[in-house]
Every structure is written in C-alpha cells, then in structure tokens.
Amino acid sequence: MEATEPGWRPEYRGADGNVGNVGSGRELGAHLYYLYRAGRNELPRIARTYADVTVLVHQTAGAMEGQFDLPDRGIGPAQQRLLELRAEVQDVLRLTSLRMSEVGAALVTIADRYAATDEAAAKEFTRLLGYHASDYQQPALAPPNPPAPGDPPLVRHIPRNIVD
How far out from the chain centre does Cα 34 lie? Predict the structure, then answer.
C-alpha cells in the first residue's frame, strides 16, 4: 500500500542509526503527521491550482498571436515581447506547479521514513491519521501535468484578428 492511499498508516520498522537525532515520541509523531498532511493533501491542491492557472495562460497564446499577427505587417517587436512575457509567465506557473508536487511527494516520504524509526512517533502519527480519517478517505490528487510554452493549443478554435 502506498503512503498516499486511503487507509495507509505508518509502520514502525525499528531504529535506524543513519537518521540521526530528529526527536522522538509523540511530539515527533505529531510533527510527522503535519508534514504528511501538507505533502499529501495541501501541496497537491496548491499544485493543481497553479496547473489550472497555467492552462488558462496557455490558452491565451493562440488568441494573442492571432490578434498581433496583422495582415501585411506580421507581429511587431512590441507584440513579440508580449508573447515572450506570456510564455515566461506560463513557464513560471508550470514549474511552480511541478515543484509543489515534488515537494509534497518528498514530505510524504519523509514522514513515512521517520515514523519507521520511532515506535512512539509512529503510534502518535497513526492516532492522528485515525482521528482525521475523513481527510484521507479520497485518493491523493494526481500530480498535474501543465502545458509548457510552445505546447499545442488545448482549444481547436483560436480567434483571429480581422483587420482590413
């Protein structure tokens, strides 16, 4: 069972000398729970929001090109710079979404691995997961895959500027 699946609970697997002194007991278990919650539930939601905004910005690419591509003139330097800025914004949003997903996955892994090193921490972690079980009944959000600048349009019909 994966650490993000509904019903998952940490398993104490004995002390691990490689971990170092990270605290112990119930307090560590509570901290691990909050790391887990952030990694499994909160950061994926933030990543999804950034991915959704990335899609919205991506959808403007074709329309902007259509508005800027004037008959017999093409796209001028100012319009080209605006298109480049749009692409930069999209890429920042996309990378932020991907990094939020990566950080969330890392926090889940960290919580799981530390819980495996301290029996009292694992018990407190499990207790908190049980107490907040309704927060973990649904599968974790899948990592988003937002479009990159230059990806094909997501909409087939792109309005074009009609100028005589």
Answer: 17
